[in-house]
Design goal:
The complex is a heterodimer. By secondary structure, chain A is of the alpha/beta class. Chain A is built from nine helices and twelve strands. Helices cover 28% and strands 22% of the residues of chain A. Chain A has an eight-stranded mixed β-sheet. In chain A, strands 3-6 form a two-stranded antiparallel ribbon. In chain A, strands 4-5 form a two-stranded antiparallel sheet. In chain B, the strands form six sheets. In chain B, strands 6-7-8-15-14 form a five-stranded mixed β-sheet. Classes of the chains: A alpha/beta, B alpha/beta.
């Protein structure tokens, strides 16, 4: 790992201020791009891939025709058409024409948005510290995503820089990473916001696409090291709701008492449409 | 005490809209109007204060009164119109007062009036001496009662006559007050006599006592308040706050408890009392004030504060509204409670920062041991009762017009009419353009101050106020009307609004014309004249610019600060023709809509007719960095320069502030805003889906209310334009 913190760069897709549910107090949350999980209920689909992804919100498009077009993006009289695979290829090859930069949207928000921007710690710090007056004694900055553990160097650099500024840090993570990656990142955060979605491995794979063995192993490591932990349990009827008793037993055995259940919501539905993704989840009403 | 409020709540909620015709006693509107006209025509040489007093006398002793047998505060006065019509400026005496003022100004100040009308037409401002925003010195009313106030006026007049110091002007003044207060007592007697036919028990006994004594318990205080407001508001004056009632009513509350009232009895009194204002559909809501510090500097909250909040929350109405005096010692418990209520949708409240108000008063020479007892009348404008009359709303200046005039050589872009000085139509640098903007802004400020200064000379002729003056101790001591030097500080105030539109427009000019060279100033002028037609791409590019106020853009925030500092410096040390100081504020009320309709397209990408920016908010849709950035931006401005009211509106999505942590976050927002010197803050917690549904299915949302400006409105009663504006803002969250 590099030691030059200021020059450390990474890929993020958002910075949100006044986040009240990403750790204690008022927080600024920086969302790192890329995630190894594919949770069916994911409400940040724009953060799933490691490389930038284009979103188009039709409701904000005035069909002004100002945006650039390319092999992946065509405009007819009444609509925009995207070939997502060509778009991804152009981005990977560094040939993206950045139609989002020419989008005027509805004058309030652009219709086109490219999620995923390479940035450095030095560039980010002014924005991350701007709300310091509101942090008080328990607020601060949370690293989330996506999955911060996919960018361990960048995550550590950010956490260190924030500590230098005296700002409380939280790491919001799925815990899905090799322990050799998990441990150093975890050690630099003041608070771990650790997702536990299922204890049964089959259920976990069905809901997230990956096994939970590494996740549970890393959780135990964090407990052993005396880390401050808040476990977050997304509760999705018909998918993992039946796992709740087992999750509670597990957390009790680990003596983890700070637990937050996150009820399912479909606020992210429109994001899927904007990204050209299908919103697969059909949660039970119960 | 019988508790019948909820049994009769539906009737009480509508008692002003649905008067009881068989309960009316007295003359109708037309008869009263004819008599007042005759009074005026038969007495062309009568001094204005006496003529006004005789008009009050006639209305109070002859206009119809109504008894509502379902209410414990049973009486109201009408001069033939419902109270709801009063609120819409249709009272007979009120109409007289408006006509009289216009007559006086048209006769004495024809050129001033002509320029005033031009300013209104061009969407610059509406300017007038402000007699509307008024507050009786409630403490004096309760201490002396009506008979005591009358005696004070009579005794003072007699004493001055006896020692030969009574001038003719003073004689006229005292006689006006005495005639009026005798008439108010006669009105109380009329109510009493009418009430005897209804077996109203304690109500009648109360009216009997109030004819000769000061109120002694809470019921009498509340009854006297309503009676006095009826008389006070017959003209154009409005009692624009009930005052700091947790402190003011506390000794009477204790007396009531000692006399056997239970806590539940007290709550019942407040249910009836508050519902009066709800049923009257009080325009811009009726303020009552809580918390703050007492004159001794101690925390003002007491058990009555909690009880009042209990009833207010229980009723869930938009009227009355709460003015909460925030101070360093206010308890977090009460703040959390208030914010929880606000979050639930009962948002008819504003928080005021005592410290900023005190420092604002210090800047105009009033020390804090005097300003400590201030109340906030109207929306959030401080006034020190009995000592200051600040005429809080003489004008609302649309600062964006100064940008327009700077672009177009002093001329209105739509009509081509010249209002401001002729400044050049091209500038070789941004700095010289900005200086031209300041020149135009100075012209608008001077126009307001000159106009008001001229009008002040005719206050007594235009609007003598015997009711208001009679309750103010220093007026009686001095023998002068409250609007004619009756109080120590005859200050005058006006607002300068549309800050965000102005700043965003100035920075757009800088960028487009002087940095990028995308257009010349002349080309920009023509683009604005054509309402951006054919320039949609450029317009949207400007709208998407990051240089906007309210997002943490230092250039924008500092420009807003500098503009207000410039105006404040211009007025610093200046006195009005009454010897008082000038105060400025930054709020817009709803002029951001009405003047938006008559303001041309602006360089920030706003189309002609679209709303201007509101209060200290970012331009519509431009608060892209959220509420924390908005607070940080708004507090770059020095709010101690904005003593006449500066409020920040927040809009939060329910999901962002749910739970206990959400409440703590809201509390933190307020605390940081005030720690950074913010003056006042209010807001909404709304989600767009609910508003959209309410627009489609209004019957399902009868109590949904929104904080519009310095008051609340029921969503269903708002215009579609206003509803759409809230929906668009909420969608952007």
């Amino acid at each position: 790992m590099t030691t030059n913190l200021d020059n450390q760069t990474g890929m993020i897709f958002a910075v949100k201020r006044f986040e009240v549910h990403d750790g204690p107090g008022i927080r600024t949350t920086v969302f790192l791009k890329g995630c190894p999980l594919r949770c069916i209920w994911c409400h940040n689909p724009e953060g799933l891939t490691a490389c930038p992804t284009l979103a188009f919100d039709r409701s904000r498009c005035e069909m002004c025709g100002a945006c650039t077009v390319c092999a992946a993006h065509r405009i007819s009289e009444t609509e925009h058409n995207f070939d997502r695979s060509i778009c991804a290829e152009l981005i990977r090859e560094g040939k993206c024409m950045r139609c989002d930069r020419t989008c005027a949207g509805n004058g309030v928000r652009p219709a086109l948005r490219l999620y995923g921007e390479k940035t450095g710690v030095k560039e980010l710090m002014p924005l991350l510290t701007a709300d310091r007056p509101f942090f008080g004694t328990n607020g601060g900055v949370t690293l989330s995503g996506g999955e911060p553990l996919l960018q361990p160097d960048f995550s550590i650099a950010l956490l260190k820089a924030l500590h230098t500024e005296g700002i409380h840090t939280a790491l919001d993570t799925s815990g899905y990473a090799d322990p050799a990656v998990f441990r150093p990142v975890m050690r630099h955060a003041d608070l771990l916001l650790f997702d536990v979605k299922a204890v049964d491995e089959t259920v976990h794979i069905r809901c997230t696409g990956v096994s939970n063995r590494l996740i549970l192993q890393n959780l135990e490591t964090a407990v052993r090291e005396g880390k401050a932990i808040e476990v977050r349990v997304p509760v999705v009827p018909g998918y993992n709701a039946d796992e709740l008793p087992e999750i509670e037993r597990l957390l009790a055995s680990l003596r983890i008492t700070a637990v937050k259940k996150l009820p399912y919501h479909d606020y992210a539905r429109d994001k899927y449409a904007a990204l050209g993704l299908k919103y697969e989840i059909r949660p039970n009403k119960s | 005490m019988k508790h019948n409020f909820y049994r009769y709540r539906d009737i009480l909620n509508n008692e002003y809209e649905n008067p009881c015709p068989e309960c009316l006693f007295g003359e109708d509107k037309k008869t009263v109007s004819d008599v007042l006209n005759k009074l005026k025509n038969d007495n062309p040489d009568m001094p204005s204060p006496l003529l006004r007093a005789y008009m009050y006398e006639y209305v109070l002793t002859h206009a119809s009164i109504e008894i509502n047998p379902y209410s414990i505060f049973a009486g109201k006065i009408r001069d033939g119109v419902t109270y709801a019509e009063y609120a819409h400026n249709d009272g007979v005496l009120e109409q007289f007062s408006y006509r009289q003022r216009i007559e006086v100004y048209d006769k004495k100040l024809p050129e001033v009036m002509s320029r005033k009308r031009l300013a209104e037409k061009l969407g610059i401002c509406s300017v007038s001496a402000d007699f509307w925003h008024a507050v009786p010195d409630w403490e004096q009313l309760y201490r002396f009662g009506l008979s005591g106030l009358l005696r004070r006026a009579e005794d003072t007049r007699a004493a001055k006559a006896a020692d030969g110091t009574l001038s003719e002007a003073q004689r006229v003044f005292y006689d006006g007050v005495i005639i009026t207060y005798r008439a108010i007592l006669a009105y109380v007697k009329r109510l009493y006599n009418a009430s005897l036919g209804y077996n109203l028990g304690e109500y009648s006994r109360c009216l009997l006592r109030l004819q000769t004594e000061a109120p002694h318990d809470l019921y009498e205080v509340l009854e006297l308040t309503l009676i006095f407001m009826n008389a006070f508001e017959l003209g154009c004056e409005r009692a624009r706050t009930l005052g700091r009632i947790d402190i003011l009513y506390y000794p009477y509350y204790q007396t009531s408890l000692a006399e056997g009232y239970t806590q539940e009895d007290i709550r019942e009194l407040f249910r009836y009392f508050f519902t009066k204002f709800h049923s009257a559909r009080r325009f811009a809501n009726q303020p009552l004030e809580l918390c703050g510090v007492s004159v001794d500097g101690l925390a003002g909250e007491n058990e009555l504060t909690s009880l009042i909040l209990d009833v207010w929350e229980e009723l869930g109405n938009d009227n009355p509204k709460l003015h909460i005096h925030y101070h360093s010692g206010i308890s977090d418990t009460i703040m959390r409670r208030l914010l929880k209520i606000l979050r639930s949708g009962k948002s008819s409240m504003v928080f005021l920062n005592d410290e900023t108000v005190f420092r604002g008063y210090e800047k105009i020479g009033i020390p804090r041991h005097i300003s400590r007892s201030y109340v906030a009348l109207g929306c959030y404008e401080p006034i020190i009762l009995g000592i200051e009359d600040p005429m809080v709303g003489t004008a609302w200046i649309n600062m964006a017009k100064a940008v327009e005039f700077a672009i177009n050589g002093g001329k209105d872009i739509i009509t081509g009419e010249n209002f401001g000085p002729r400044t050049p139509e091209e500038f070789d640098s941004w700095e010289s353009f900005y200086r031209a903007f300041l020149t135009q802004l100075d012209c608008l400020v001077d126009f307001v101050t000159d106009t008001v200064d001229q009008m002040l000379k005719y206050n007594t002729e235009a609007n003598p106020s015997p009711v208001y003056s009679g309750v103010t101790q220093s007026c009686i001591e001095r023998g002068r009307d409250i609007f004619d030097g009756g109080v120590r500080y005859s200050n005058t105030s006006f607002k300068c609004f549309s800050a965000a539109t102005t700043v965003d427009s100035l920075l757009a000019v800088r960028r487009l014309v002087y940095e990028e060279g995308a257009v010349t100033l002349d080309e920009l002028c023509r683009i604005l004249q054509n309402n951006w037609e054919g320039q949609e791409s450029l317009r949207l590019k400007v709208k998407n610019s990051p240089e906007k106020y309210g997002c943490g853009c230092a250039a924008a925030d500092e420009l807003a600060r500098d503009i207000y500092a410039h105006i404040s410096k211009r007025l610093s040390g200046r006195h009005n023709t009454a010897g008082g100081r000038w105060r400025i504020g930054a709020d817009s009320i709803t002029y951001n809509y009405s003047y938006g309709r008559t303001t041309s397209a602006t360089p920030d990408g706003r189309l002609k007719g679209e709303p201007l920016s509101k209060n200290l908010s970012a331009s519509p849709g431009m608060d892209r960095e959220g509420v924390t950035a908005l607070i940080l931006s708004a507090t770059v401005i020095d709010h101690t320069d904005l003593l006449d009211g500066a409020v920040l509106d927040f809009l939060l999505h329910p999901s962002s502030v749910q739970g206990e942590e959400g409440l703590e976050a809201m509390l933190k927002l307020v605390k940081v805003y005030f720690a950074r010197g913010g003056m006042a803050i209010q807001g909404n917690v709304l989600d767009a889906e609910r508003l959209i549904d309410a627009q489609k299915n209004p019957q399902a949302y009868p109590t949904l209310q929104v904080r519009v400006c310095g008051w609340n409105e029921y969503f269903n009663a708002m215009s579609k334009q206003s509803q759409d504006a809230f929906i668009e803002q909420s969608k952007a969250l």
